[in-house]
Write a structure and sequence with these properties.
It is a single chain. About 10% of the residues lie in helices and about 45% in strands. It is mainly beta and about 450 residues long. Strands 14, 15, 16, 17, 18, 19, 20 and 21 form an 8-stranded mixed sheet that branches. Strands 3-36-35-34 form a 4-stranded antiparallel sheet, with no helix packed on it. Strands 5-6-7-8 form a 4-stranded antiparallel sheet, with no helix packed on it. Strand 27 (about 335-340) and strand 28 form a beta hairpin. The radius of gyration is 27 Å and the shape is globular.
Length: about 450
């Protein structure tokens, strides 16, 4: 009897071992079937990478169906995480903070003002401390928003009495500048600068420019004689503000100018420094950049450099097309700009001469930068480009269709560059119409 019990016990153990083995094999097969096949590294004829494995991807549309999501320019990054445009279950636009390490959502926000269109298109926004501020410029409902990036909650949302420009610039740690029209004593309109308290949203008029009033453009009900466009705080002297403003001329020409304003004396150090010959497109498209005592701006088809303290022009570089979409950046002492002529340029900061030019895409997203590499999405190519800033060599032209098939392309949303920690390379996040993809940075 004992022998029979031993034999039965051993037989039962053998059955259990075989069953466990079959279960383990089934588990491995299930995991292998569920695991996503990542694309291999592929290059084009010039050696640029057109496909590569990604660290994670995040589906942008909660309902599972494609909807038009928003567009954020420039990139919104907080504590190393990316705030990206997504859509909710009903297809409405919202913003989502994504953990850049794992691609998981930290919070969602769609607390739009009642009656608002809820359209999240940020061509200008401001991140200051832990707040994100932007202006929705619907004519019927101009709304100013401030949200807490730590919690994803609304700090305030205010319906303004009139339209304010979406362009906003920081002023210290607790305020920012915006612009809107005011009616003058002579009956004409002009665009003046207003100052806003970030904590409360309280707004008051701050500064007007001295316009010549030689011509009034019929762009407002009363006719406009000029506009303050940008205000940059001079980092070497907190009392000085570099003011970019413009006046209209006949035939829709625009005269763009610099002025330097002293907030302590409440006087202009200088005014009316003309940036380039007035033409129909000689507006200053993007916020000027102050670097080492000089200010750089793109004005129509030109990039110009002026001395901040005197306003005198140091150099001007003219191109065949403008920089309306990409603007330009200055990083590590290098000026990089992507022109509508389909070339990306690096200019010498002291002379404006072209250090290199490389064929890219023309229309594109704003340029982002990390560890010596410029990243952007080409509007015409639909690809994620990466260019080594020192040499101009294109090392990425990543094709979204290689990642998700069909005719997928990357969109001209901002490209998010997040520095690495502990010797890691960092991360680059870009979006197609359906997914946000996270790649290891080039270097």
């Amino acid at each position: 009897m004992i022998d029979l019990m031993v034999i039965f016990s051993e037989h039962l153990k053998d059955k259990m071992r075989k069953l466990n083995h079959l279960l383990y094999i089934s588990f491995l097969l299930a995991v292998s079937c569920c695991k996503e096949d990542l694309p291999p590294v592929q290059t084009d004829g010039e050696g640029a990478i057109i496909a590569m494995p990604y660290e994670w991807k995040y589906y942008l549309h909660e309902s599972g169906n494609y909807f038009e999501n928003g567009n954020f320019e420039p990139a919104i990054i907080y504590n190393g995480n990316a705030v990206i445009p997504t859509t909710s279950k009903n297809g409405s636009q919202r913003m989502t903070m994504i953990n850049s390490n794992n691609g998981k959502p930290e919070w969602h926000w769609n607390d739009v003002y009642p009656g608002s269109s809820g359209s999240l298109f940020f061509f200008q926004n401001l991140v200051c401390n832990n707040y994100l501020i932007w202006q929705e410029n619907s004519i019927s409902l101009p709304i100013n928003y401030c949200i807490n990036l730590e919690s994803g909650s609304t700090h305030w949302k205010i319906k303004r009495e009139k339209l304010f420009e979406t362009r906003i610039q920081p002023y210290g740690e607790s305020k920012y500048f915006t612009t809107s029209y005011v009616e003058r004593e002579d009956g004409y309109d002009e665009y003046a600068a207003f100052i806003v308290d970030i904590q409360t949203g309280e707004l008051s008029e701050f500064l007007r420019a001295n316009y010549s009033c030689e011509y009034a453009a019929p762009i407002t009900e009363n006719g406009s004689v000029g506009a303050i466009i940008y205000i940059n705080q001079y980092p070497d002297n907190s009392n000085l503000l570099l003011v970019t403003y413009a006046e209209p001329l006949p035939e829709w020409k625009v005269k763009s100018m610099f002025g330097l304003y002293n907030t302590e004396t409440q006087e202009w150090v200088y005014e009316r420094k003309i940036l380039t010959t007035p033409l129909w497109n000689t507006s200053v498209f993007h916020t000027p950049i102050i670097f080492e005592g000089r200010v750089y701006a793109n004005v129509g088809n030109n990039i110009v450099c002026h001395d901040v303290m005197t306003g005198e022009q140091v150099w001007k570089k003219e191109f065949t097309q403008d920089f309306l979409f990409s603007g330009f950046i200055i990083e590590d002492g290098m000026l990089l700009a992507n022109c509508e002529d389909t070339y990306t340029y690096r200019l010498n900061l002291n002379t404006g001469y072209s250090v290199w030019q490389t064929e890219s895409s023309g229309t594109c997203s704003r340029i982002s930068y990390l560890n010596g590499v410029a990243y952007f999405v080409g509007g015409s190519s639909g690809r994620l480009h990466a260019i080594v800033a020192e040499t101009g060599k294109t090392v990425w032209r990543i094709d979204a269709s290689k990642l998700e098939g069909g005719e997928a392309t990357f969109t001209t949303n901002a490209v998010y560059c997040i520095p690495g920690e502990g010797g890691e390379k960092g991360k680059v996040i870009a979006m197609s119409g359906r997914y946000a993809y996270c790649f290891e940075a080039y270097q």
